Amino acid sequence: MARDGMYVSKDTEMFTIADSSQIWVLVDVFEHQIAWLRLGLEAEIRVPAYPSKQWKGVVDYLYPDLDPKTRTLRVRLVFPNPNHLLKPNMFAEVVIHGGPRKGVLKIPSEALIVTGERESVVLALGAGRFRPVDVATGMHQGGAVEILSGLDEDDTVVVSGQFLIDSESSLQASFARMSVAGNSDE
Hints:
This protein is mostly beta strands. The protein has one helix and eleven strands. The chain is 12% helix and 41% strand. β2 and β3 form a beta hairpin.
C-alpha cells in the first residue's frame, strides 16, 4: 500500500505480511456432494504451473451457506507449501477423498432419466412389461446414483434402451388416443 515519498501515519496500512509456508485453497463443492464432506478429509491439488507435482492437504472449514446462484458450498482446504511454489490466486484441480456412503441403494447413472421436471427410472416387470417410476436421488459418483426413494432393493431397472421403451409407450398411447378420437367421429 505504501509508495516512495508517501506520507504515512500510525493508522496507514503499508503492507501485509503473510506466511505462505501453508496455504488455503478455496473450492466450491456441488450441492449433491455436500453429504460426503467433513473436516479432516484428505485432499489433493494440482496446478497448471506444475502439472507433474501434487500437494496433499486436508479439509479445514465448511462455510455455513451455499452460493444461491451456483448452488455450491465453499470449502477451505489447507496445504503445506514448504517450497513456496503455490501462489495466491492460482487455479487448481482439486480432489477431496470423501468416497460414497456405504449401505445405500444405488443404480447405474445411465438408468436415470432426468427430464428437468422429474427424475425417473423404468422398472422391468417381467414378460416384456415395463413401468416408469419417479425417484428421488442423492449423490452421483463414479457412474452410480444414490436412490433415496421410489425403488426397493429387489427392483430391476432398465439400464439401456429406456428412451426407446418410453418412446414406444408414448407412441402406443398416441395411437390409442387417435383410435378413440377416430371412433367418436363415426
